[in-house]
Design a protein that fits this description.
alpha/beta; single chain
């Protein structure tokens, strides 16, 4: 049971996250909400539960679930439900905006009172979660500097992020019906364009991983195109495709914010690329066709126009 009569300034908090920038911002928002007591930072739910079991002053729980899959989130929260004893703990959980809808349903099915938002962190989210206050709309973000819009790589990041957001509905459709190979083909075509764009910037940190992840998605799509051996996407290839798309987007967010790639995102990309290379069932491209080369040149020329 929680301690009775605990004042706000005595309430401690747990942060479950791996990203240092997330931790820094979360601590700042908790302090601004007048929660000045101790903050525990952990990377696993098991460690958080040990703290909850020994410290009855913990009532705030902030989780960065943006790098997690729906299955990982579900497993983590089910573990919490089995072992947690304090019903007063309040949750603020962050998701990546692309996959918010599906994963939010998973969270609220297990923790109906949790507050769930998509990144980035905002003070009004913390007020809503831990004070029960109304959510005040955030002011619109400042317009990007004019120079950024003229820079080739920056333009590629902006356009690619928007491009991926447009595929979310397509990915959701395939998740509900793996036999929709026609939609899978559309997904592959969209990510095929990313390969060409980022081929010209592979020397920049992180860009090669974006290209490789897009290649995984496009090659999986090609594997099922006009195939007599497959009438539906296998679970193995669906997981590889979805995780590649999600990881690609998370890396893009780091690149757009002009910061080094989060270590966990880079590690995830490396793991996915290794799985792709080992998978003998995926039809991998052996070389670029002349049409692909021509398309890449067209993309580069368009980017050069913006950078001139």
């Amino acid at each position: 049971m929680a301690r009775v009569g605990l004042r706000k300034e005595q309430m401690k908090s747990i942060l479950l996250c791996k990203d240092r920038d997330f931790k820094r911002k979360a601590v700042g928002h908790l302090n601004n909400s007048a929660f000045a007591a101790e903050k525990f930072v952990v990377e696993k739910m098991g460690d958080a539960l040990e703290i909850l079991e020994r410290d009855l002053d913990v009532e705030n729980f902030v989780i960065d679930a943006s790098p997690m899959s729906s299955e990982e989130i579900k497993s983590m929260l089910e573990l919490y439900q089995r072992r947690a004893k304090n019903p007063e703990v309040r949750f603020l959980i962050y998701l990546d905006e692309v996959y918010q809808s599906k994963e939010k349903d998973v969270i609220l099915g297990l923790l109906p009172k949790a507050q769930v938002f998509c990144l980035p962190l905002a003070q009004n989210h913390f007020n809503k979660a831990f004070h029960g206050g109304r959510v005040i709309p955030e002011p619109p973000p400042p317009s990007p500097p004019e120079q950024a819009s003229k820079d080739g790589p920056a333009l590629a990041l902006i356009e690619t992020s928007a491009h991926i957001k447009e595929t979310v509905e397509l990915l959701n459709s395939v998740s509900k019906d793996r036999s929709r190979l026609d939609i899978l083909k559309q997904i592959g075509q969209r990510f095929n364009g990313i390969i060409g764009t980022f081929s010209f910037f592979v020397g920049k940190p992180g860009y090669a991983k974006v290209k490789d992840l897009a290649t995984i998605i496009d090659d999986i799509s090609r594997t099922y195109e006009d195939s007599e051996d497959h009438n539906a996407l296998t679970e193995k290839h669906w997981q590889l495709l979805m995780e590649s798309a999600k990881t690609l987007y998370l890396i893009l967010k780091d690149l757009r914010e002009n910061r080094p790639i989060t270590t966990s995102y880079g590690d995830k990309a490396t793991t996915l690329i290794a799985l792709y290379k080992k998978d003998g069932d995926i039809r991998k491209r052996s070389s670029q066709s002349q049409d692909e080369v021509d398309r890449i040149v067209d993309v580069a020329n368009e980017l050069l126009k913006h950078s001139s």
